[in-house]
Structures are given as C-alpha cells and as structure tokens.
From TrEMBL, chain A:
Origin superkingdom: Bacteria
Protein name: Branched-chain amino acid ABC transporter permease
Gene Ontology biological process terms, A to Z: amino acid transport
GO molecular function list: transmembrane transporter activity
Species per Swiss-Prot/TrEMBL record: Deinococcus radiopugnans ATCC 19172
Topology versus the membrane: Multi-pass membrane protein
InterPro entries, sorted: ABC_transp_permease, BCAA_transport_permease
Keywords: Amino-acid transport, Cell membrane, Membrane, Transmembrane, Transmembrane helix, Transport
From TrEMBL, chain B:
InterPro entries linked: ABC_transp_permease (IPR001851), LivM-like (IPR043428)
CDD domains (alphabetical): TM_PBP1_LivM_like
Domain of life: Bacteria
One Pfam family in the UniProt entry: BPD_transp_2
Transmembrane segments: 29-46, 58-91, 103-123, 130-148, 179-196, 230-251, 263-290, 311-334
Any one of the GO CC terms: plasma membrane
Keyword NAD included in the entry's annotation: no
Name of the protein in question: Branched-chain amino acid ABC transporter permease
Localization per Swiss-Prot or TrEMBL: Cell membrane
UniProtKB/TrEMBL annotation, chain C:
Protein name (database record): Branched-chain amino acid transport system ATP-binding protein
Keywords, comma-separated and alphabetical: Amino-acid transport, ATP-binding, Nucleotide-binding, Transport
CDD domains (UniProt xref): ABC_TM1139_LivF_branched
A GO molecular-function annotation: ATP binding
Region (Disordered): 1-21
Alphabetized PROSITE patterns for the sequence: ABC_TRANSPORTER_2
Domain ABC transporter, chain residue ranges per copy: 23-260
Family note: Belongs to the ABC transporter superfamily.
Gene3D superfamilies: P-loop containing nucleotide triphosphate hydrolases (3.40.50.300)
Organism from which the protein derives: Deinococcus radiopugnans ATCC 19172
Entries under Pfam families matching the protein: ABC_tran
Family matches, as SMART domains: AAA (SM00382)
UniProtKB/TrEMBL annotation, chain D:
Domain ABC transporter: 7-255
UniProt GO molecular function: ATP binding; ATP hydrolysis activity
The keyword Membrane is assigned to this record: no
GO CC terms: plasma membrane
Pfam family, one: BCA_ABC_TP_C
Annotated protein name in UniProt: ABC transporter ATP-binding protein
The keyword Nucleotide-binding is annotated on this UniProt entry: yes
Keywords annotated in UniProt: ATP-binding, Nucleotide-binding, Transport
Amino acid sequence: MDLLPQLLIAGVVIGSVYALAALGFVLIYKSSRVINFAHGQIIATGAFIAFALTQKGVNFWLAGLIAMLATFLLGMLIERVFLRRMVGEPIIAVIMVTIGLSSVIDGLIHLTPYGAGTFSFERPALLTGQGIELFGLPLSKTQIAGVLMALGLLGGFTYFFNKSTLGITMRAVADDQMAAMSVGTSVERVFALAWAAAGLTAAAAGVILGLMSGLTLGGLAGIGLKVFPVVILGGLDSVIGAIVGGMLIGILENLSAGYLDGIVPGGGTREVFPFIILIIVLLIRPYGLFGTKEIERV
Amino acid sequence: MPASRFTQTGNYRTRYAQDQTIFATYAEQLSLIVLIGLLLLLPLILPKTMLRDVNMIMIYAVAVIGLNITTGYTGLINIGQAAFMGVGAYATALAATRLNLPFFLAIPIGGIAGALVGTFVGLPSLRLKYLYLAVATLAFQIIFEWGVGHTPLLAQGGAISLPPVQVFGVKATFFNHNFVWYYLILPVLVVMGLLWRNVLRTKHGRSLIAVRDNDRAAAAMGINPGTAKIMAFMIGSFYAGIAGGLFAYFQKAVVIEDYGLHISIQLLAMAIVGGLGSLPGSFLGPLFIVTLDRLVGNGSQWLGAQNLFPAGVDVATALRPLSFGLAIVLFLMFEPRGLANWWRLSRLYFKKWPYKF
Amino acid sequence: MTLSTPQPANAPPPQTSASHGDLTVNNVEVVYHDIIQVLRGVSLTVRAGQVTSLLGTNGAGKTTTLRAISGLLKPENGKIREGTISFDGKTLSALNGTDVVKSGVVQVPEGRRVFKHLSVEENLRAGAILGRGNWHADLERIYTYFPKLPTLRHKQAGYTSGGEQQMIAIGRALMAHPKVLLLDEPSLGLAPLLVAEIFDNVRRINREEGLSVLVVEQNANIALRNSDYGYVMENGRIVMEGLSAQLASNPDVKEFYLGVTEGGARKSFKDVKSYKRRKRWM
Amino acid sequence: MSQSSQLEVQGVTLTFGGINALTDVSLTVPPGEIVSIIGPNGAGKTSLLNCISGFYHPTRGRITFGHHDLSRAAPNVVTGYGIARAFQNLELFRGLSVVENMLLARHTHLRYGLLSSLAFYGRASRQEAENRAYVERVIDFMELEQHRSHPVGTLAYGIQKRVEVARALTLAPKLLLLDEPMAGMNVEEKEDMVRFILDIQREQGITVVLIEHDMGVVMDISDRVYVLDFGQLIAGGRPEVVSADPRVIEAYTGVAEEKQAVGV
Amino acid sequence: AQKTVTLPWSGAITGPTSDAGASYAAGVEDYCKYANAQKMLPGVTLNCVTRDDQYNNANTQRNFEDFVGNLNAPVFLGYATGGALQLKSVIQETKIPTLTASYHIGIIDAPDNTYTFLPVSSYSENIVALLEYIAKKERGAKVALIVNPSPFGRDPVVDARKAADRLGLKITDVQEVGGNNLDNTALLKRLESQGAKYIINQNTAGPVANILKDAKRLGLLGKMQFMGAHYTGGEDLTKLAGDAAKDFIWATSYYLYDEGNQPGIQLVKKIGAQYKRGGDTIRSVHYTSGMLAAAIAIEAMKRAGNNPDAAGVYKGLISMNGSKSFNPGFAVGPVTFSAKDHIGAESLRLLQADATGNFKPITGAQRSALFQLVHPMK
Ligand SMILES: Nc1ncnc2c1ncn2[C@@H]1O[C@H](COP(=O)(O)OP(=O)(O)OP(=O)(O)O)[C@@H](O)[C@H]1O
Ligand SMILES: Nc1ncnc2c1ncn2[C@@H]1O[C@H](COP(=O)(O)OP(=O)(O)OP(=O)(O)O)[C@@H](O)[C@H]1O
Ligand SMILES: CC(C)C[C@H](N)C(=O)O
Ligand SMILES: [Mg+2]
Ligand SMILES: [Mg+2]
C-alpha cells in the first residue's frame, strides 16, 4: 500500500498553506510579541480584493500583486491606528484588541457583496492543466505553486531575520523596546513594517487558499484559527517553526484522517488530533518545537 | 461611631478589622440593599423579552465572574470558558433527565462537574504560560465540542430537553418561564458574587493575584503557584459550570451550539469591557455586550429598511460584528480598565456629593 | 576654568560660552504623566572630549535627565515642559529618539538591558541599525576594546554575566558611532574589579576616539576618579558642580557620597546608627 | 538559637547545559550570624541562593536547614521552613500596594480553608485582622509608613529595595537571604539599609545571608565571608582574613580594600 | 376591519450558513408581502417579520418568545436544526405549529412532535432514495457516507444504515467533514482503498465542493459517484466546485430555477422581480424553499378562516391531504399533512449535474417506499 507516502505528501501540500498563513503570525509576534487573532480576516481581505479585481477583468497575477500591496497597507494601517496605542499593555488586552479587530473586519467585509456566499477564482492559464504525480498521488499546479511560494517566502524571511541588520533589529525590538530605541531604532517603524509584511503574506496565503478551495469568508477567516496549533507547535517566534509546524499539522491531520478515522466511530479526528498532539508537545516543550525559551533568572 | 459611617468621605477607620469590610460606609451598604430591592421588583415592570435578556445577562455574569477568576485575577488566559459552561450544562442535563434530580441539586452538580473538569484542564498551567496556555484552553474548547459530537449519551450535540421546574408550587411554563427563572437566577448571582468578594479578602484571593503579578515572588512568599493556578481553574470553572446548569434550564434544552468557541470569545469580551479583575465589571460587561447587540440588531433592521445599501449586502450582518468588535477595541484603547472604572469614578463622585472634590 | 569651591547651582555656569561639540542642558523641567514633576530646572554641560559625571541620590532625576537628552522620555510618558537641550547646533529637545541618535548622542540604558534572546554579536549588530559605517569593521573595533566579547560571540546574551552584559551594552551603543555617550549607572551590581575594568575602558575610548561621556553613577568614588567634571543632583535640581577632584574633596560629598568622615577616615557601617547630619545645601 | 536552624551546604554542584554554575560548594551558616557571599559577576552567588531557596535544584550535593533537606524542595516549601529571601532584581508585585505586598508574605501563617474564606466568617475573619496588625509592625520597623498604600511600581528604586526586605521580614523567617540589597544606592542610603540589617539580626535574632559587592559594607558587618569564583569556593572565614587573601584580591577586589575606598 | 396577524421567521441571515439563510429569509419575506398584496387572506393583513438569529439558539428562542409571547404569532417558521430541536418542548407546550428550514427527521420524531412539521422530505429520506438508486444500479455496491459534524449531518446515518442493510448495500465508512477542511486527500484515498464506489454527502455545499475538487484532482471522479441530500447541491455547489461538480447526483424536493415552465418557478421569478431581488438570490433554491414555507403557513391560515390562531393554523395544516392537499408548485409534489403525517412534499427527484454544472432530473418525482419501513413515524 502506498497510502502512507501519499498521506505524507498531501500533508506537506496542505501544510505549506498552513505555514504560509502562520508566517504572518510569526512576523508580527517576532517583532512585537503581539498575537494576531485577526490574521484570518486579513487573509480573507487579501483574497477578496484579488477576486474583486479579477471580476473587474484585471489579470489574475496583477490582481494578486495589487491585493498584496493592499494588505501590506492594511497591516500598516492596523498597526498605526490600533496597535500602537497598545504598546506596553498586558498581553490579554492586546490579544483582545486583535479579536475585536477580527470582528470589525468581518463586519466590513459583510458590507461588500463578498460577505455572504461563495466564489471561486477563474484559474489563470499557468495554473490550469495537468500537474505532476508523486507516489501515484496527482498534485495540481496550484498545489505545487502553493508549496513553492510557501517555501520561498519562508526561506527568504528566515534569511532576513538571521542575517540582515534590519531583521536582527526586529527581533531586538521584541526583546526590549526601550533598549532598541536607545540605539536609534524607530520601534514604530519596525512594528509597522512587521504588520505590513504580515499583511503581504496574508494576501498570498489568501489567494492560494482561494485557488485551492474556493472563497468564502468563513473558510478563509477560519484558517486564522487553524493556524494556532501550527504556530504554537512550531514556536511562536520561529519562521522555521512555522514551516515545520505547518507541515507537521498538515501531516498529522492527514495521518489521522487516513488511519484514525477508520477506527474512531464517526471519524472527523483530523479536527482534534492536531490539538491533542499540540497539548502533548507543549507539556514536553512548553515553548514549542523551535520557539525561544523565555530567559527567566531570579 | 457607627452613625458617621453613613456619611464619612474619607478613611477614618480605627481598627484593622474595619479595613477588611466590603463597604466603606453604611451608605454604600444601604445603597446595595436598595439596589437588590429594586432588582427584586424589576420583572414587574420589564417587558417579557427584555426580562429574557436580563436573565441571560445574569447567567453570563456568573460565567464572567468565573472567567475573571482565572483570567482577570490569576492572569491565566482562558479561551474555553464556554466549554466549561457546556460541561456544567451537560452534567446538569444528565442529572435532571437520567437521575431525575430536581433543579436545585442538578445545577450544583453542573458546578461540581465544571470544577472537576476545570481542575484537570488547568493541569497544563503548571507548565505553560501566557499564549501557550491560552492555546491549550482553546484546544480544550475544540476537543470538548468534538467530544460531545461523538458521544451518543449527549445526543451527539443534539438537544437534550430539560423538564420544566416547579418552585413553591409554581410551575415554570412558557408564559412565566422568564419570570420564574429571574427569581432563581438572581439569588444565585448575588450569592456567587458575594462568595467571590469574600475570597478576595483572604489569603486565597490574594494568592491568585500574587501568582498573576509575579509567580516567582509568589513562590517565595510560600504560595504554591501550581496549587493557586489549579485552584483558579477549579473555582473559575465551578462558576462556569453553575452558569451552564442555569443556562441549560433557562434554554429548556442543551445543544452544543450554545457552548461554542464564539461564546467563549464573547465571554472574554464581556470580561474585558467590564474590566478585567473586577467584580462590578463582571456584571457590567455582560450588560453592555448584550444590550449593545440588541440595540445594533434593532438599529440595523431599521437601517436595512432604508435601502441605503446595495443588494446582497445585509446591514445587520455587517453592523453586528462591526459594533461588537469596535466596542472591544475602543474600550481597550481608551478605557482599558473597562466599565468598572466608570463605575468606580461615578461612585467616587456620589460619595463626595454634594461636594465637587 | 577651574573652581576653587563648588558653586551653588543657581550661579551662572562658570565655564565660558559653549564651544563646538558641547552638549548643553539648559534649565530643563520634566514631568511624567503630566503631573509628576521630576526635573526642576536642570542645567549642565558635557564638554567635548571630556568625561562628565552626574551624582545624586535615588530618585533625584539622573535617569530622567539622560532620558530627556536622548529623547527617550516619551515611551515613559514623560515630557520636557521647559528648557532646551542642544548639541552641535542642533536642538535635541525637539527631536525624537531616532534623530537624537543620528545626531550623535547615544544612551546606554540603566540596568544594561541587553537583548536577552539575541546572541552577543547580534546585540552589537542591532546597534548598527542606523547604518553608519561598515558594521563588520565596527564589530572588530568593539572587540579590540572588549577582548572578552569575541569569545562569547554566539552565546545568548541573557546568559552572560553582569559585567559582560555591561560591555555588550556599551559596545552596542558604540556601534552607532556616537559623539556623546550617556552612561546610566554602569557599575550597578558589578563586582569591584569589573567596575574598574569598565571605567578603564570608558576612559580609553574617551581618549582614543575623543568621545564625550556623561556618566550617571552611585559609586561616586570611581566616577569622580574617572571624570573631568562633576555635578551633584538632588530632588530634581543640580545642587553642586565642579572639577571632579574638587568635588571629591568637598566635605558633604565626602560624607554622603564617598562615605568618609570629615577627618578623612572611612566610616564604619557598623556604627551607622549613631547620628545623621543634615546636608549643607538643603 | 537552636542547632535546628543551621544551614549546611554540602558539595553542591549546579550545571546548566554542561556548564557548571557551581562546583562542589560547601559552606555553613551558623544561627544568628551575618554571613556574606562575595565574588565576581557570574561567580554563582545568586545561583547558590537559588539552590537554597528552591528556585534551582543542585545537580549534585545536598543542602540542609536544620533537619529539612532543601535540595529538591520547591520555593514555597523552603519558605515554609522559615527561609525568606529578597531578590537581586526586584521581584515585587508591582501593581499592589506596599501593605498588600506584605500581607502576601503572611500566606503561610494563615491557617484557614477555602470554605472559611468563602463565608469570611470565624477563622478567616479573625486571622486576617491579626495579620494586618503584624504587617503594620513590620512597616513601622522598616520605616515605610508614608509609602504604605502606594502601588509598589511607582516607588523610587531604593524604596522598592527596602520593600523587598520588609516583605521578606514579614514572613517571620529564621533565615533571611539578601541578594545585593544595596545595589544602586549611594553611601547614605546604604547606611540606612545596613542599619535595618543589623537590627534584624540583633533585635530579632534572624540569621542573615548577604550577597553584596560593596566591600566596605561586607567587611564591616559580616561575621563570616565566603568567596565564590567561577562557581568554586575560593575562600571563607572572618572578614579581615578573607580580604587579605591574595586569591580574593586577584579574583575580585583587585586592590586591598582600604586603599580602594579612600584613594581618590 | 383588517386584522393583523404575524408571520414570523427566525434564522441565520448572518453568521454560519447565512448564505442559505439570507436567501431563505428573502423567500419568506417576499412571499408574505406578496400574499398581502394579493389579499390572499381576506380580512387579514400579514405582519411579515424575518429576524436574524445568527444561527444562535439562544437568539432563536428569544425570537420565538417574542413572536409567540408578544406578537401572538399563530405559527413559527424556523431555520436551524439545533434551534428547532431545542424548541421542541416549548412548541409542544405552546401548541404553535412550526415549520423549519431544517429537514432533520428528529424534529418530527417523538416526543414533543405534535406541532412540528417539515415542508418537504427529510434528509434521511433524501439519502434512502439515493441508496435505492444505487441498489438499482449495482447490487451489493460499497457506499461511504460523509456528513457534517453536527446534529444536522449525523441525523440520517442511522436510517441510512438500516436502509443499506435492506438493500444489500455495504456501508464501508461514515466520516465527518466540516467547513474548515481544506484538504480531503487522505479521506478520499482511504475511501478508495476501501473500495467505496458511491459517496453520499449530508452537508452544506462548501465542504462537498472541496471534496469534489480534491476527487477531481486525484482522478477519482470517474471511479466514484458522488451524491448528496438537499443542502449539498444546486447553484451553490456549481459555483464552488465548478466543473468538479459534473455528474454529482442530488436529491431534492424542489423545482429549480431553470425549469421555467413550472408554475411555482414562474411565481418565484415574478415575485423576485417584483421585490427587486438580485439574480443570485432568485436563482437560489433556498429562495424557493423560503417561499414554500411561507406559502404553507399562509395557506393554513387561510383554511383557518377568519380566526387564524394557533389551533386554527394547526387544523388548517392537518387538513392538507387527499383532495385538500396543497400544491403551490414550488416542490415536485403536493404538500400533504395530517395528524400523523408531518412531512409536507414527500416527493423528491434525483438530479444530476451536466458538464456546465446545471442539474437535470434523472428520475421523476417519487417517494421512497423503503423510508417508511426504516423510519416508521409515530
Ligand atoms: N515613568 C515614570 N513615571 C512616573 N514617575 C517616574 C517615572 N520614571 C521615573 N519616575 C519618578 O521620577 C523620579 C526620578 O526618577 P529617576 O529614575 O530619574 O531617578 P534617578 O536619579 O535615576 O534614580 P536612581 O538612582 O534610583 O536610578 C522618581 O521619583 C521616580 O519615581
Ligand atoms: N537559568 C539559567 N540558565 C542558564 N544559565 C544560568 C541560569 N542562571 C544562571 N546561569 C549562569 O550561571 C552563572 C552564575 O550566575 P549567577 O547569577 O549565580 O551569578 P552571580 O554570582 O549572582 O553574579 P552577579 O554578581 O552578576 O549577580 C552565570 O554564568 C549564569 O549565566
Ligand atoms: C438550514 C440549513 C442551512 C441546514 C442547517 N445546517 C441546519 O441546521 O440544519
Ligand atoms: Mg536612575
Ligand atoms: Mg547575582
């Protein structure tokens, strides 16, 4: 039976979408220690902007780019208007602001014709037609594009955070804002940049997700929730963690759907299995697989 | 010199025991009694549907006190309070339908079930902090919903109907249901509030706050942070369980949708808008959120009728989450201490009345 | 230019007009949260190429003074209500933190505040964010001052010792090519040997790079020994100033900051209970 | 003081990821004395204190306090044995007032259950009142009256340090561990703190373990001094003996103490 | 004098499933207004109230209490499965005839089922009909069920198993798939390895579309026949799944928008145009469904004569049988109720999607005889 390799590959494919969505979380968390519950909504915004443009006859790729630019600005705007005031507030307050924002964006999307209903992209020529087959598992071009895009973006950001001065500074800001300011860092600019970058990746994730499984507000925004086990498993502040966490969750979901569902009456174990694994992993490594351990010295 | 406690405006206490009293002055004590008296009369003047909202507000207030115990006072972010409510609701439903217990036993059983499960779910808090713990509670919420869906005993999330109750010979029917339950819920809320107020004055309450502020220092004070956290989860989910039991009866049946993630989020919003770690806030938060939702619901129905928006856009759909979200965001940005702070300020004002300062 | 006796603060500054490269703080008042007034008219000058020390009791406002200079009051909810700070012809008090650093004034914050989760080298690189000069060359420059740091390169800064953290913090500030370095209690919690080492290094950098330094210290002893000029601050005011050597011989400074009796012997802490003398300037 | 409150550290080694923070450290703290631990930064002083107070557990070796074994005990358990501690970097409840901070230190002295506190009747109510009185006495002693009800976070650093000590004292310990209580203070403020420490030891008979970098203070008030360097105990004994030890001078002070203090 | 009677509906105009709910609400509201305009009820003006409950049971209850307690509504039009199940005891107590958009058989099962009615055949019957179709095509075929993880989805499983037994079919697996499922490779691969040839869905269109798209990519569409109950198919599915919807077999009791020659659909078009609904709404089968529910309620009121109270409406409803059955033309058969029969239009058709995603009937209107056997009504 070649079920296992097929499940693993399928897990990697869906996992790369998770990873891409998770990347946005990590970007924000890494520099500002804010966890963004509105990320799913930003993903949805990006996807719908791209969709609306294609509806108006704009070329798919151009529409995707414009959407990324738009969510780039949206991220910046959110940081500027809402999050900047929250610097220094307790973590629960900041979390709640983003929960509130998720609701606000939901509402705003409902003011457009895309709030209710389901839509799907007109697939661009490049992504139509036969994909490839791995271990007897056919993969569509969209899926391959998703994996490549995820790996590319994730690799780029890993390099950025570890090797570039700006990347290092962004991590420094997360560590100690006051100290970062003392050497001339504009903390505000760093935050704005982080949010903007997160917005950009969100649109990318949204478009890929839209291509793969259609556009509904609930489905796109729902990925915001799905991504939690991913980032927590990988470690909230680790780009590598986002990749590995995403792939792992994707694979775990598939393995449980592939094997566990046959045993558990009613099945649907993929909905909970990752969460159970998550709790077990956390009990062993409380800061995730790749997360930075909080340095606590008394 | 008790008489002067009616009118004093400063701190003239002479014994430390007085420092522990809940009410600074008799005037305050008196005004609370008057308030409760008024509350007892409320159902006589309120329209029926509003009475239903008030009942709901009160039940949520019980759950929000519980949430405040874990999240507000102890700082353990809990995104699964609705699931704890659910545990209480299902336990109550089973006690009432399988064991045929009367409501005054079935509801406490819900509380105890909540506390037991809460204690268990709280165990990871021994190792996890902040967001990692928050996500563990989120995981519990999801596992709970899934688990109920796979348990035939719990009707797989479908309805388990509860029998109507009978108090002092009065049977709760469709037409007096809200009325009867008002007088059942109100005392529960008042007692639950008072109990917590008491705990706050003692070492147990303080130890929770200590763990929130600095768990290492708490340990150095001889407080076992683990025990304190588990205790917070236990008490917090006991409150949730009681609220769930009440909700089960109040809704006449238990269905899984009443205890979903969105309710957990709503409870958090109530706690925040009310003011985290504040008892009055635990009442004001639910009051505000439920009222806001009603107002927006009605307002947007009117707006929708004005045909200002293009077809395919439903104004209510948009305005409800929009206003809910905005309320949370604005509160956090401009009044992070929540409604409780307004309450405190207005109390200060009245205490000094008629003097301005 | 030298003083024979320490001057009361209100007298006009004894030094002649500010020369090029001086940092001057002129009659600055600072409030926190719009209500808590901490600085009540502080004036001081950091001469180009000199080390200037600022002494004072806890809560006197020393840190606040540094924050006012470096533009870091805002995050603490503080504000300059009155007065000006200028350097090199620029009015620093009108700039934000980033622009103050750009104009060449860099603060090493109190309590070291290294980036705990970053490696030692990354800490230093974070100091190069404004991108003046080549960070590679700068790293080497810092490593020559603090030869211990290159051996710790890849160690997480949170796990280095107090003295090492102080070196990292100073090194990090030097990466920004400052003309004036503001040091806030560099000796805090450091063992005597390290304190000496840090001050030696500061002195060396001051000499070799012509860097001006303003150092806030509780350890008056070492601060006065390693500085050219000194100020004493109490309750938000400068209460005394003078050449460091002269300050060190002032009886009040001797008793309250250096812990020596008027006779010149070191007081024993064992006998502290006996009496308390009032400070003369109060 | 009974023999039961003697602190014994026997051959303690503490390892962090392969690096020894402490290597085979043994020392004794006799009841009623002021014992200082000095040494360069990173020598392992705080780590040793952490081992005693239960925040770290020694990789090897044993720590006993009277007949209690502290080697594996949790911090709150150690506190229950009568060992209190003030931290190097303030570990206060910043949002709470001075009184509230100190009330928390009475936790182990209050003996009533959760049910009693739910009702706030009987035991709970009575003990809370007594307790408040106790806290006030400590506030008097440490001269904190005027700060009593201020949130600790807004107090000046020196005062916060004093609150740390006061809070530890409120635990009514037999042994008090102080980690650099005078860091960041000028001479005058140090004098005040020394006065409190001496009173604590002399009037209340509490044993004190002090970590401090100010050699003047250490030499003046200690009955016994231990010196750590790179996790190893390099000297121990009467202050004047230790300060003259060439190894101590080389590793720590750099110069003989008297010269350093006055030589301007 | 004109009497005002409230015709209330509570459902998910917003929140989960609101894509269906919004169109459904429009159908109820428009038909109600149309009835007023046509003066269908002599002497009575309908107060058409459609209220959003956000798919939240507490809101549904509140709305119900308001409708019945304050507005004296003689009938209740509901929506969600959960809300309807929760309301059963109250409905029994208040004797308010109730019709919901959920065709969950549990709603009309005992106990507390005197006043609950389904407008059309139940999900269970949809699925039994699909099983019968399979049995006719292939003896002993292997069938898998994919259902929504909710009471709505799980409901028909028991009946499906019983029916399969009788039909000699083998149910190889029952799986739950919700709306957040982005990838069904594992599921489909496993079903394939079990040899399942027919996959029956009880779900909403979203998850089904995802399954179909994955199946298409995996090259399974030729090997597996996908089918589904009422809420899986129609325009929604076509829109979401695109060409992957091809060949999908759908069981429903309603006529479709394309069948313009049907009087019911003509009415839908006319009313939709009159009240200026968007094309998407009018095309949606949920718009038609909403109209049917409203039409049944209004017809029952009409039969109650000049006193359309709850008892009257109930009598009106259970009088709809034999020659007095009601046939507004929205569904493929007449609506019949009696004291024992609480299912309105029992007839249903199977339809199959063509290459452009348009559903075309592959059977005539039929009733599932077997369903009576596997789920006898009490
Ligand atoms: N962010 C702030 N908000 C309110 N008050 C503040 C703030 N920062 C400092 N203060 C107050 O300002 C006064 C001076 O503080 P500052 O830190 O400047 O003193 P310092 O001289 O540096 O003392 P230390 O030697 O303890 O570092 C203190 O009373 C302090 O409480
Ligand atoms: N939790 C920890 N994890 C890893 N290493 C640690 C930890 N705590 C302490 N160390 C290391 O142990 C060594 C001793 O540190 P410790 O804090 O005990 O020194 P110290 O003597 O108190 O120094 P100082 O005078 O600066 O306070 C240091 O190298 C430190 O980095
Ligand atoms: C009404 C429909 C959209 C089906 C819905 N999911 C239910 O609860 O039954
Ligand atoms: Mg300072
Ligand atoms: Mg230390």
